[in-house]
Amino acid sequence: MRLQLSPELEAFREEMRTFFTTQVPQHIRDSVAARRHVSKEHYVETQRVLHAAGLAVPHWPVEWGGRDWTPLQRHIWREEMQLACVPEPLAFNASMIGPVIAAFGDQEQKERFLPGTANLDIWWCQGFSEPDAGSDLASLRTAAVRDGDDWVVNGQKTWTTLGQHADWIFCLVRTDPTAEKKQRGISLLVFPMDSPGVTLRPIELIDGSFEVNEVFFEDVRVPAENLIGEENRGWDYAKFLLGNERVGIARVGSTKRLLAQAKEHAREITADGRPLSEDPRMAARIAEVENELLALELTALRVVANSADGKPHPASSVLKLRGSELQQAATELIVDIAGPLSLASSAGEGSDVPDWARVATPEYLNHRKVSIYGGSNEVQRTIIAGSILGL
Amino acid sequence: MDFDFDSEQNDLREAVRGLLTRVYGDSESRRRVTTAEPGFDDKTWSRLAEMGILGLPFAEEDGGMGAGPVEVAVVAEEIGCVLAPEPFVEAVVLAGGLVAARGSAAQRSELLGALAEGSLLPAFAHAEPGTRWTASAAAVTATPDGDGWSLTGVKEPVPHGARADVLLVSAVVEGGTGLFLVRGDAAGLTRTGYRTHDGGRAASVRFAGTPAEALGEGGDATAAIERALAEARIAYGHEAIGAMDTALRTTAAYLKTRKQFGVPLSKFQALTFRAADMYVSLELARSVALWASMVADAGGDVVSAADRSRLQVSRASRHVGKEAIQLHGGIGVTAEYSIGHYTSRLTAIDHVLGDGDWALSRLAERVSDHETVDPLGAPYAG
């Protein structure tokens, strides 16, 4: 048991901090700090800066740009990135399809896709959920039928995040409708979003943003070489993909930043003749979220410091559940600090409401998603009850 | 940074667990021991002394083992796992800790040596009726009397105050709060002991011109008291983690075996989800408890770390303790079944040195002093 980082890790942390705060363009980090919309160009520019320095895909195999870091180093890398308001490498590329292709793709697929995936030359999107297959993903119905050298895909995906920017999609499709277990008849196909027969329809979210989409497939012809791994093994790859970087999903650094902003805003608002930050109830609420975030961060550290042997630490299942709740608690806190100013979400020029208060409620509403995606919190509770408590 | 126990610490855990499980593995034997006086088992206390546990954190020249906060944490957690009633945190960490911090060489050698051997039980007489959880004294006063001092006033509740061979007493002196030693057979000392709801013991202790000896150099000891209380809060945090761990495991086992409507209770998602939430509370609290001991070990800000541990452990203790009973149903509130005793002990720990809201108030007062909390940096890394 030892609290301090080793001198090597201290130096590593400093190196990360320095890089992120000096090499990633300030205007991009400012826009993340202000919680403004991050554009496609900003994502691409940032990921290329990171990749040039070997910091976009450190968790990949070394020959494809990985760094062979320990889980603790990866944790520090991610935390420092979030604290510095750096847009993270696109998850669909860096955490999802990249590691799957690196682990299960053939050599030709690796050479064809991995360099562009790491550098964000290819923007990937995820074709997993369907209207009738949400938490119960394995009941998906989008079908691929073999026809000569092609697969012919028909069906519909939904919740496809940032699909409007995507060049390619990785898609779970049913290739054996007769399989005894529904998990057994699923394969993983990749194809360009401009393939004939692909139609994308944006879904407007409750905060007015356009992040997710429905994607329709009508007789989309996908060459057989675009099957990743083995036919009917897609469920295994999906589980691998979703289990990848479970620790990162706690988003501690990002919530820390939100909480620091909440404190700052509470000083700017006057309530009953004094700064809101001096109101004992508000101070206690901030202090309690701060302590819970500390508990989450320490749990993440326990997990990464311990997972060197490859087995997931049982406490890792806490991270998604509590991480999402605390992201939500922080966004809710900022809405409450804004108070009546939080109504001015659509105010334009000529309004005196500060930017942070304008984005507060849309962000709060948007963040309801975080306890739903990536395995809803109810799915997480099922996992804890089943695999940890044996219930 | 490393959250793993080393092999010596694991050996220590195994040894303590072995002893305590033999004595208290069956909850009925704990009931027997806590029903009789002095509320703990003298033989087990002697065994702990033989194993070096009662001198664990003290310097070797004072008769101790020279171990650190992490070893203390290991023992406290094992105490909590079986609700062992032996007053390890009360006597060793808190009362002994004050002697170690403030006592003269002669006092340290006499008191800590005897405590380590199991022949002397010290208790810290600090709480006063009508006040709560402060580091200073208000109602008990000390006045110079010849070569020594004389104390007047009432301390209550004093954990193990009736059985204690020597009392460490906080009392008002000029310029603050001083610490004094009062022998159990001192004149003008009246002690009325009673059982606490968790099977422990406490006492009302009255001083009427009672002769006392200053601890160490005397003078204001508020900072030393604050620090000793912080170390005890951290150790109690581990005792609570041990108790919660057993409470959760007992509850999960019960859900698998108890049948209603023809099926085990574990078939009801309304129950299993609540058990999952108990696990979340426990693991988050465990992380902070471990961290607080690492902060103490590293020489960081132990008072702040203790407040953070206290808040997290308090919230978790209430959650886990209440749900453990509810998920059991009626049997959970019976004295003959173990689970309710866990909740009772968790409730006692929660109130003895400051509850979660109390810790939160202290943290809230300082929340604007920092932008973010870095658990590996200042002021915690030492």
TrEMBL record, chain A:
Residues forming coiled coils: none
A Pfam family matched in the record: Acyl-CoA_dh_1
Domain of life, source organism: Bacteria
Keywords in alphabetical order: FAD, Flavoprotein, Oxidoreductase
A GO CC term assigned to this protein in UniProt: plasma membrane
Gene3D superfamilies in alphabetical order: Acyl-CoA dehydrogenase/oxidase, N-terminal domain, Butyryl-CoA Dehydrogenase, subunit A, domain 2, Butyryl-CoA Dehydrogenase, subunit A, domain 3
InterPro entries: Acyl-CoA_Oxase/DH_mid-dom, Acyl-CoA_Oxase/DH_mid-dom_sf, AcylCo_DH-like_C, AcylCo_DH/oxidase_C, AcylCoA_DH/ox_N, AcylCoA_DH/ox_N_sf, AcylCoA_DH/oxidase_NM_dom_sf, Mycobact_Acyl-CoA_DH
Domain Acyl-CoA oxidase/dehydrogenase middle: 125-220
Residue stretches making up the Acyl-CoA dehydrogenase/oxidase N-terminal domain: 6-119
MF terms in GO: flavin adenine dinucleotide binding; oxidoreductase activity, acting on the CH-CH group of donors
Sequence ranges assigned to domain Acyl-CoA dehydrogenase/oxidase C-terminal in this UniProt record: 232-388
Cofactor: FAD
PANTHER family (alphabetical): ACYL-COA DEHYDROGENASE, ACYL-COA DEHYDROGENASE FADE29
Similarity field: Belongs to the acyl-CoA dehydrogenase family.
Name assigned to this protein: Acyl-CoA dehydrogenase
Annotated source species: Geodermatophilus sabuli
From TrEMBL, chain B:
Record-annotated Acyl-CoA dehydrogenase/oxidase C-terminal domain positions: 224-366
InterPro entries for the chain: Acyl-CoA_Oxase/DH_mid-dom_sf (IPR046373), AcylCo_DH-like_C (IPR036250), AcylCo_DH/oxidase_C (IPR009075), AcylCoA_DH/ox_N (IPR013786), AcylCoA_DH/ox_N_sf (IPR037069), AcylCoA_DH/oxidase_NM_dom_sf (IPR009100)
Record's keyword annotation contains Ribosomal protein: no
Keywords: FAD, Flavoprotein, Oxidoreductase
GO MF assignments: acyl-CoA dehydrogenase activity; flavin adenine dinucleotide binding
PANTHER family for the chain: ACYL-COA DEHYDROGENASE, ACYL-COA DEHYDROGENASE FADE28
Protein name (database record): Acyl-CoA dehydrogenase
